[in-house]
């Protein structure tokens, strides 16, 4: 066997594992990601943290202005490969549920012009705010008792302002439908 064949047999599985980790895992400082769910009820209710954020349209939005309806809160970034995969799903789900659920995107550690180009490229029409230092993301991870970090991360918040579920990594339409059903009850 030639050196090249031996090298390819050794490197190919490692490269495949790295690629799968990036695609399935999400982007993040820790490199770790997972999906999970927290269920509200009894003493385990986790109130969604308050935030004020400037949107790409120049408005300031507070979490309190989104109360009264269930909320899908998605954290993503223009530099995140898995966020690119998830963007079309988010827009499709926004169009499907926009009368029943508020949608809000938060751009994590992103430049405004990069996020604006990302939103335009993917035809995102829901409001997107900027979280340049990840403080909002970290407050939600702490409130939801999320022990892993990465983006995209999506929180599903019920009409009472409690975190009902979260998902780390790109969402499929099926998973999205299941999580939205949990906050429409």
Task: Describe the fold and architecture.
By secondary structure, the protein is an alpha/beta fold. The chain has a single domain, classed as Glutaredoxin, CATH 3.40.30.10. The chain contains five helices and eight strands, in the order αββββαβαβαββα. A six-stranded mixed sheet has the order 1-8-7-4-5-6. Mean pLDDT is 81; it is low at 10-25 and 29-43.
Tell me the distance between the termini. Answer: 62 Å
DSSP helical segment count: 5
Largest sheet features: 6 strands, mixed
In CATH, what is the class? Alpha Beta
What string, H for helix and E for strand, traces the elements in order? HEEEEHEHEHEEH
The CATH superfamily bears the name: Glutaredoxin
Query: What is the global morphology?
Result: globular
Number of domains: 1
CATH architectural category: 3-Layer(aba) Sandwich
Strand content: 15-25%
Low-confidence stretches: 10-25, 29-43
Mean pLDDT: 81
User: Which strand order spans the largest sheet, edge to edge or round the barrel?
Assistant: 1-8-7-4-5-6
Rg, alpha carbons: 18 Å
CATH topology, anyone? Glutaredoxin
- What's the total number of strands? 8
Level of helix content?
Answer: 25-40%
Helix and strand content put the structural class at alpha/beta
């Amino acid at each position: 066997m030639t050196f090249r064949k031996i090298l390819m047999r050794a490197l190919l599985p490692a490269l495949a594992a790295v690629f799968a980790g990036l695609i399935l895992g999400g982007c993040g400082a820790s490199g770790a990601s997972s999906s999970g769910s927290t269920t509200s009820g009894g003493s385990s209710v986790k109130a969604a943290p308050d935030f004020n954020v400037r949107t790409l349209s120049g408005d300031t939005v507070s979490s309190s202005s989104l109360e009264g309806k269930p909320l899908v809160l998605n954290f993503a970034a223009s530099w995140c490969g898995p966020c690119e995969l998830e963007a079309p799903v988010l827009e499709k789900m926004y169009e499907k549920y926009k009368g029943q659920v508020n949608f809000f995107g938060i751009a994590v550690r992103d430049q405004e012009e990069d996020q604006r180009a990302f939103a335009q490229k993917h035809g995102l029409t829901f409001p997107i705010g900027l979280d340049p230092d990840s403080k909002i993301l970290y407050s939600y991870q702490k409130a939801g008792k999320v022990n892993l970090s990465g983006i995209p991360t999506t929180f599903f918040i019920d009409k009472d302002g409690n975190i009902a579920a979260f998902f780390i990594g790109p969402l499929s339409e099926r998973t999205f439908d299941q999580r939205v059903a949990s906050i429409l009850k």
